[in-house]
Design brief:
2 domains, mainly alpha, Rna Polymerase Sigma Factor, Chain: A, Arc Repressor Mutant, subunit A, single chain
């Protein structure tokens, strides 16, 4: 890939890079630095690009690798939680909570699960691309996404329960 083609690919996928960096980083300066480091590393790899990888997946793979080298990942407890499918009606929960509640819920997920869920469910990346980005097999990616959805559902259920006012307490507060 030439510098011109790589630059064009970066421009096309800059939004995806920034979105993931924002979810991974602690603040906007760190997100900017992560995007910049990703672009610099990609430019440095021009003679030897990721063979067989589309530019978007290649850039996000670089970003994930850079993030992991600078941040020890929190344990995801993969062996501690049985993964159960999240029912379709439970996914509607995402639409009943405020953006702030959803953001807070996502931030409670381990980094790898949060990033995979964001790329898959929010950015619409295919399972195969998510697997390549994280260096996982397709079955591992499926389990990780299922686990992320299950954990997020549990977190959001708790948030919803704590923000919902019961009819009894409403009756006590009315004149």
């Amino acid at each position: 890939m030439t510098l011109t083609k790589l630059t064009a690919a970066v421009v096309v996928h800059l939004d995806a890079l920034h979105n993931l960096a924002t979810w991974l980083a602690r603040d906007s300066a760190e997100a900017y630095a992560l995007v910049r480091a990703t672009c610099q590393q990609a430019i440095g790899m021009i003679p030897q690009p990721h063979a067989g990888t589309n530019p978007r997946v290649g850039l996000l793979t670089i970003m994930w690798g850079l993030y992991r080298t600078g941040h020890p990942l929190s344990p995801d407890g993969a062996n501690e939680i049985a993964v159960e499918p999240v029912a379709a009606d439970k996914r509607m929960l995402l639409h009943t909570l405020s953006r702030a509640d959803l953001d807070a819920g996502l931030r409670q997920l381990p980094e790898a699960l949060r990033a995979a869920l964001i790329l898959s469910d929010m950015e619409g990346y295919p399972l195969e691309d998510v697997a390549v980005i994280f260096g996982w097999s397709k079955p591992t990616t499926q389990v990780a996404l299922s686990k992320a959805r299950q954990l997020l559902d549990s977190i959001l259920q708790v948030r919803l329960a704590t923000t919902t006012v019961s009819p009894e307490s409403e009756a006590k507060n009315s004149p």
